């Protein structure tokens, strides 16, 4: 009820604060028989972890995951999977300032009113450090979806501040620290980020996630449409302020004759809808875009108040990402994987007996 | 599990198809002692119901709600509230064509693959007719939030195709069939819609919802952030393709020094975040924008396939809204009301003992 | 959250009060393609309905069920099923006495403290009249389990006051008003009930439910053991005060060498455990016993207090069952059916890929 | 969905196997501001832990709990609480025999059919070792209920095999290894257990739980009655085969005039109902009894089959409790605490505004 769990059938519950002893999660509902190892999960965690380039926070965390239960002789058993990551670089710095003040656009003020107190060390539970466990849990879902159904979930950065990527080369995405699929934009991105860091400011970003190999028929009608669950999942990521499925806000100015994705025996003729109709997959690629706000922690002084309600000036020192969007790609992939996994299980529960003679047409659209 | 329920503590479960006998819902978790009548709920239903202007579908449905349980001597009892609306204008037309074919961008093809069959009469469960019950349930939440907490939830159309509203006059919103807050745009809107209908095409729209009078501290951390639950709720509305909280996609190109909402004893100095920080309300106005795609049912022939997989041409006859966005305002208000209500109850459950000496600062920003 | 829903994947939500307009329910998660009709459901409802013999309440209710959605062309569609039963014999009697007083062992006093008010007409929501919708929903589950898996769920009265049945003849159960499987006990039962009615008193009873044809492997470990969910389901029936799985309280004095159900290639050698081990079915018959307390509404005056806290004497007039246990058999069957159905769906969700070479041994024990 | 979570608002999710690396749990929904320490939780864990007397298993586990998150500066923060207990005495014995065979009345055979494989080391997830985390989580609930509401939850052994306790002296319960409240029965109990161990057999037991200081009005109508949730909670404990609320199975032979608990301004005149009416507390002591079967692991050879379906003889060696009921008292207390806590939070969510002029009458009955 208090929001630390996600998913109805593939349920991930997390704990842990930025500067606490450890982060952890429990996956409940994972199918048995999946080969899974700490090494495989670590691959995804390493994509998210801090300190890997000069464009992210310099906090050094190995983010080494340990599986505590639910995996036996190399395979999932079907019982709950416990995983843990110990925090190693939580600095015992002086928090006296942050303790008494509210940083603008951070959760400090809202947490104080919700709980009457807060773990002020590095943002406590509101820190994006919590997303490490999402990546670990999503990694298990990604693997199963790929092996069992051929579903592949991948993301890339599609925009950083004013710089929009123009080409989509999946090979490139994992070869640069920006998750940028357009090699031609790298010099511009590096240059922009260097200037940004020097200015002590931060910037927003846009991430795009694509799930390919989707079968038609996943999702539920009404409230738990696949796109509604995706919106929930993606908006739950720190700093996300907008979600689009398919053409998203572009649909406002489109006419019906343009937007509707016509069908032919050879495949769909377009994919404006982003792979869902009535909340249920069409078999086309599932496409979602998310907007991330600029990091709130910047070196430029800002106005705020302290706990007594008096006006103060705040500078957020410490180690921060100048663009939180950069490391958001693996997190968004993990959330999409959890949603698709959940709907795969839901579908099997209710529709195990379903057969149809209607052919599955191909997704003929390049993304 | 199958998606016909929304909300964890204020839970609304719906049933009903476009051309079935009736639509209905059950509200579970409603506080006792709320004065509620069919007449009050009807006010909201009348705002959504079809056939009230020449710019919406001409289906004639009185959408007369009947309360069957959970209200005694004019007040809610705290037990489950059953409500029903009988369908009266479901035409016994010839469905043989629609039965064998898949209308582009409708849920026909995806439902067929999910369930192996479908109620093809008017879209069955995938029809937006289902949203009538959301409006009825949301009406109860809206009333309680207003009376008990002074929270007011209102929406308006902010864009229809290329026409963007420029002024926000709440009085205007309910005086024209477009939910348009800018009286100067009415002639342009009417003109646009007339031409659109003549062309047999449809158009997208953008709706904005504002919740004012919000207390700080509502929402949960991590997965059930208030904005994440709002995204879930709003994306579950038929035809919605995009969600923004506060500045939304505009945040991508903003710098941290611009985006962060500074605090002062006199109030917040801006509201780029749309009223949430870390997923929890700041006490500022909650602001969400949604993008609705153009209606898929248009008179212009389109390509598709039939159940045998053969290519066909489809014309969607019948009574349809040329812009589904027009009637979406009361639906979006209802969904926001359900989410806020749910979080009010969640907050009371966990944080009943919380006190804080931190002052609540005003929301100083005009929306 | 407020307790009007049951089941995680096959979810039944109900509404309705004893003397309100109607009772209703929504089934969410029902598989598509099940042939179902109002006539079939009515068969189960008729077994529960009041006024069918002189040993039950004389309230006349046809309990005629109407399916409002979710069934199309005679089959379930997979979307939510709405059902309704209109109350027809709610008497507009004078409730002024009951309104101001608390009947002993009724929910009057506890509801008043919970909600601050209550629908006092015939007990409102606390009346067992609510169970009609459980029987309707359970009927759908029973049919599916029988047709798809060969699982049969049946119940009988095993004890009424001091009279214990000794023979189990399933044919007999539906041929007498007591659901008694032992024809030799009928004269004694009739005699006992006649005297009881004359005395104005009431009596308790014991009901036994057997699910045969169970596959091994249903149920979840830890908190949602199949027997734990059964206990939840059965204890939620009005007047139930005790639950036993298999030997139940008899196990206290058993030794391990006696209780353990040994296995052989020809089948299990006993069924003390009632068909579950570690919360998961063994494939043996699932056996549960429930104890129902005597009806609280009796003609013999009792002490109580009124709303002002003053001492009063109460006589509960009106139409009541002298033994609520009599009509509990179809209700208990319905609840067991819902639980088994829910676990069938859960099992399919998680374990769709499971195969094993371990043979299924027969349940060799006669119940 | 897969059964490793309990509670709707105060939600406890556990992981861990008998011979895995660690056991752990996450509490979600705990109110903020509760003073809690590892030392306090350890007190309850020490009551359950193995090896403390010659009448329980000789496995040596310190069961040392570590709090990993959700507690800051000695108080709960309102965010998820992660706790862990490392296994220290999991022996690397030869499991080759147990791996290929199914121990009678254990979960071996049912798990194999459910999951297609199992962690056979010490029963894996089906071991009662899992209950350690329930005790840890329940300890937090117990403390809050006591401090905030004056609710006290205590249990005792009321029967071991043929030996029934006759006196209830709460002081005695924690001064002997049997949780026996009747000092006069101790010699008989010790003698019985010595003979039992010598015979290599095991025995069942009965535990009684009493929650005193209950306010009236807790619980939900219909499916989530407080007693239904208690039945769920208690039946989920390993080896439990029966549940009684109040008089339980004794109610079968009672008349209404005997069973109903009359009210007077000075208090209730009896407590046959065990503190609930209509599923909602009356303010009387909540009383539940549970029946635990004899341990399945005994030294006396038993018949079974192996994975190939061939007949075999099984002897369960290793370290086992001859009466699992003995250590069940703190586990049952923990489960009752979780249920009451959950309903306290539910009640606050929905009924925060409720006031009534109806006086609360005392529970005048000694238990």
TrEMBL record, chains A, B, C, D:
It catalyses: 5-O-(1-carboxyvinyl)-3-phosphoshikimate = chorismate + phosphate. Pathway: Metabolic intermediate biosynthesis; chorismate biosynthesis; chorismate from D-erythrose 4-phosphate and phosphoenolpyruvate: step 7/7. Coiled coil: none annotated. PROSITE patterns: CHORISMATE_SYNTHASE_1, CHORISMATE_SYNTHASE_2, CHORISMATE_SYNTHASE_3. It holds the Pfam family Chorismate_synt. Gene3D superfamilies: Chorismate synthase AroC (3.60.150.10). Reduced FMN (FMNH(2)). Its cofactor is FMNH2. NCBIfam families: aroC, PRK05382.1. Homotetramer. This reaction introduces a second double bond into the aromatic ring system. Belongs to the chorismate synthase family. This is Chorismate synthase. It comes from Litoribacillus peritrichatus.
């Amino acid at each position: 009820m208090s929001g630390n769990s996600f998913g109805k059938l593939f349920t991930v519950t997390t704990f842990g604060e930025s500067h606490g002893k450890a982060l952890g999660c429990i996956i409940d509902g994972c199918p048995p028989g999946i080969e899974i190892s700490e090494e495989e999960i670590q691959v995804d965690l390493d994509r998210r972890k801090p300190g890997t380039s000069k464009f992210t926070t310099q906090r050094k965390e190995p983010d080494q995951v340990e599986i505590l239960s639910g995996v036996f002789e190399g395979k999932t058993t079907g019982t709950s999977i416990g995983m843990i990551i110990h925090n190693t670089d939580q600095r015992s710095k002086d928090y006296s300032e942050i303790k008494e003040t509210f940083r603008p656009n951070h959760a400090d003020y809202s947490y104080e009113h919700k709980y009457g107190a807060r773990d002020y060390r590095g943002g406590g539970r509101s820190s994006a450090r919590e997303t490490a466990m999402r990546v670990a849990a999503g990694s298990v879902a990604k693997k199963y979806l790929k092996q069992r159904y051929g579903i592949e979930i991948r993301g890339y950065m599609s925009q950083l501040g004013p710089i929009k990527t123009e080409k989509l080369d999946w090979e490139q995405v994992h070869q640069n620290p920006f998750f940028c699929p357009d090699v031609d934009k790298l010099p511009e991105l590096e240059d922009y980020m260097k200037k940004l860091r020097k200015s002590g400011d931060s910037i927003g970003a846009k991430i795009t996630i694509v799930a390919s190999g989707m079968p038609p028929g996943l999702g539920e009608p009404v409230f738990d449409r696949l796109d509604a669950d995706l919106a929930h999942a993606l908006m739950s990521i720190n700093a996300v302020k907008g979600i689009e499925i398919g053409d998203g806000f572009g649909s406002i100015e489109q006419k019906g004759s343009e937007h509707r994705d016509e069908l032919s025996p050879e495949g769909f003729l377009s994919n404006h809808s982003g792979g869902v109709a009535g909340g249920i997959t069409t078999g086309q690629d599932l496409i979602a875009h998310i907007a991330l706000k600029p990091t709130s922690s910047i070196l430029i002084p800002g106005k705020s108040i302290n706990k007594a309600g008096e006006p103060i000036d705040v500078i957020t020192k410490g180690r921060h990402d100048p663009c939180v969007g950069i490391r958001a790609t693996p997190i968004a992939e993990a959330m999409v994987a959890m949603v698709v996994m959940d709907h795969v299980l839901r579908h099997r529960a209710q529709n195990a007996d379903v057969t149809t003679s209607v052919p599955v047409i191909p997704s003929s659209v390049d993304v």
